[in-house]
Amino acid sequence: MATVNSEFIKELEQSGTDTGAECFNCGTCAAICPLVSDHFPRKMIRYIQIGAEDLILKHAQELWRCLHCGLCTQTCPRGANPGEVLMTLKRRVVAEWRRS
Amino acid sequence: MSDAKQNSPENAPAPESLENKESQDQAKVGVYICYCGGNISDHVDVEKVRSRMENVPGVAVARTNMFMCSDPGQELIMDDLRSGAVNRVVVASCAPSLHETTFRSAIARAGGNPYQYEHANIREQVSWVHHGDAATDKATRLVCAATGKARLMQPLEPLRVDALRRGLVIGGGVAGMRSALDMADRGIETVLIEKSPYLGGGVSRLGKLAPYGEDAETVVRDLAARTLSHPRITVYCGASLSSYGGYVGKFSIELSTTAAEDEAPSPGQYVPGKGVGGPMLPQNIALETGVVVLATGFSSYTPHTGEYGFGENQEVITLPDLLQKLSEMKDEKGGQLHLDGRRIRSLAIIHCVGSRQIPGVHEEDENGHLNEYCSRVCCSASINAANTIRESFPDTSVYELYRDIRTYGRGQEEMYAQASANRVVFMRFNVEEPPVVRRIAGEYPLEIEVKDELTFGEELQVPVDLVVLATGMEPAPIHDLVDMLKLPVGADRFLLEVHPKLRPVELPMAGVFLAGTCQAPMDVGEVSNAASSAAVKAVSLLGKGFVELDPFVAEVDLQKCTGAGACVDACLNDGALKLVEMEVGGETVTRAEVTPALCLGCGACVAVCPENAINVNGWTLRQYESMVDMIISDVAFEDSGEAKEEPAVEEETAA
């Protein structure tokens, strides 16, 4: 059970400009990702939309399996920039780890 | 009836003269068989049917074409008529509802009588349901039957009914005003009646219209001002229909007052949420009109108590309520939204409330109805409202909980994209596991628990200050009108047009049209288009000052009629048949008389007459007998060595 937090996306903007606001969950990025299965990177963007920071931290290992090949960004039909969103998330997670 | 003399008894030809004419005018039937581009010819051996038809008595020519309804196909028929090779036409093609009119008008253009025409349906009734030799044989028999009827067909003249150049529009919303203006601008005197004291209907309760952001108040004010000032439009508010009779061109209507005059605002005055005041009907009046346009509009679904917490929590409201509140505060901007003195930090809109209901899942209303249709406009209205709030009050979060998003029109997908960019958070639920709204003791008054399919089935808790239910559209409660005008109603309880594509704004009764949301859920743009098209249909019907109707109505043979009256009892349309005193052969006797404009041509009277004294023109008993004889006859099958008997029906049988 996760509680939706609409403030999280505002906090995340401090770690980078791309937060995937345009994403409407079509799943094209997840279909093309050659490295990580299980709805990646769409799942990460969805966690941002609902503000589920704990779920992002829980699945943070997946972020480091991403090689930034750019296929998701290239195929995204909405220009939501999934590759850049992952960079933003990495910065945020690293900051979180340093803090703890 | 003086308006339609065509079939009055004194004009009815005596049976002897009919048959004399028939013997003079030897029937030469042209048979035209369509390939329908493979639709028919893939299953029916069209050329075989043609060669068989050449054996059939009375058939002068038999021809085929890839598309009989095309210009070259029609030319084939017209050439044969002009050269005198044929004087009766049978076309074997698709369902008559599609192209019967096409071929009748081709015959008229070639100088023939458009009612000496018979249509055989060898597509829907043959090639779409049979294949192989059986299909070819069935097609042959159907075409044979058509030629059997065609040989006995008399030239008929259309019924001509005088038409008043006046229209009545029922309903003073956007659809009604649009129809009235379009009719009046084209020279038709128009009476617009509205039950409430206000013009504007459902649109007066809206704010910014999706997707282009026009102001609803401006739209209503503008239309009402033009309607009220138009010299050819008479507006009666607080008026409803109390009686209805007559037929196309001359409906007799009585109007009665529905509201006391002192409740009404002064005409032209705008009242937010209600519309523009119109002149009240001073007393009950009677009037006559040529056409009736129905623009009775819609009402919004009212959630039952407990549906997503509605009626139990004051923080649960409907989308129309929210839109009205927003429209009252359209100049406010910045920070958080405040409604009724409460700050709204976050709100959730739940889609498909009272739409797309499923038996066994949703609760029926008190009359056992479920709204199984999609209301079409609520997705766009919800997203439009979400955008308005996010852009005007950026500190208020908006969540949209949906089953499916249908932003179907031009400019509406862009609105959805804008909502994403505005960070409206969408969540998708399964109809089997709908969101649960509950009151919580905490910072927020309410919490929604939803199993979100976009987050892969994660159970989410959404704390909110306000829950908005996007309620669907239902037809307005017009049971009295439905009963009085005998209107056809669909399974969804909206009024039902003749055909959604071929005749989208017409009803089966001539002269009655549909405009707007009385027919189906529509947005304001679609309503305006529908209303204009109803107006155009009405104007073109009344334009000539008379209306021509098909002559397929009952006709009494006064030589045989004994005034038994069984036909009058059987008649389905009050007033179409009655017993009257008349002079026949120097004696005053009681005989049946038809009012052609009211006759439906159903044939109920024909079935019950003990003397066979009544017939429906174009569908006489003799023609039916001839069709049956031809169906059982094997005359067309000579090439296959089957029985070669002549059909029982012959010119001498007819004579």
Automatic annotation (TrEMBL), chain A:
Keyword Iron-sulfur on entry: yes
InterPro entries: 4Fe4S_Fe-S-bd, 4Fe4S_Fe_S_CS, HdrC_iron-sulfur_subunit, Helical_ferredxn
GO molecular function: 4 iron, 4 sulfur cluster binding; metal ion binding; oxidoreductase activity
A Gene Ontology term for the protein's cellular component: plasma membrane
Record keywords: 4Fe-4S, Iron, Iron-sulfur, Metal-binding, Oxidoreductase
Keyword Metal-binding among UniProt keywords: yes
All copies of domain 4Fe-4S ferredoxin-type, residue ranges: 13-43, 55-80
Name listed for the protein in its UniProt record: 4Fe-4S dicluster domain-containing protein
Organism: Oceanidesulfovibrio marinus
Automatic annotation (TrEMBL), chain B:
Alphabetized InterPro entries for the sequence: 4Fe4S_Fe-S-bd, 4Fe4S_Fe_S_CS, FAD/NAD-bd_sf, HdrA-like
Keyword Signal in annotation: no
Biased composition (Polar residues): 1-10
UniProt key word 4Fe-4S: yes
Cofactor(s) required for function per UniProt: FAD
Family from the record: Belongs to the HdrA family.
UniProt source species: Oceanidesulfovibrio marinus
Chain segments carrying region Disordered: 1-23
Protein origin, superkingdom: Bacteria
Full protein name: CoB--CoM heterodisulfide reductase iron-sulfur subunit A family protein
Stored Gene3D superfamilies: 3.30.70.20, NAD(P)-binding Rossmann-like Domain
Keyword terms: 4Fe-4S, FAD, Flavoprotein, Iron, Iron-sulfur, Metal-binding, Oxidoreductase
4Fe-4S ferredoxin-type domain span: 552-582, 590-619
